[in-house]
Specification:
Layout (H helix, E strand, L loop, with lengths): L1 H19 L9 H17 L8 H20 L32 H29 L1
Keywords: Membrane, Transmembrane, Transmembrane helix
Amino acid sequence: MGENKHIEELDAFAKKYVKEIEFEKAPADFTSSIMNTINEEKRSAVFKTSALISKKGWFLIAASVFAVLFLSFTNSKENAITYPEIDFSFLEKFQSLNVFEGITISNTVFYSVFFFGFMLLFQLVFLKKYFEKRLN
């Protein structure tokens, strides 16, 4: 019971001093000024542009393309990289099931499946980056 009396005293004290506090009035253009500051912040965030590939990235791409072209023309008679020879004759001993031997696929179907797979991979990468930026 003592706790309730203490709470009632605090309640009466709070009501007394809340009545004495003067009300503050917001300026007439309060809403419009806040909306203007929000719009300015949105504009500044929207127009921040950056290169997708940095200058270092372009340099590395150009250097690698140049190196591939240079190596392909300079070592045309000699192999720059020697690969070890592997004997795959042991694979002839296995019998294959030849399940797909009689199936023929038209070029249109092949290209459409390839294009669909490529676009699916592209969208997965793009959407992953989009949601990572959105969540951060």
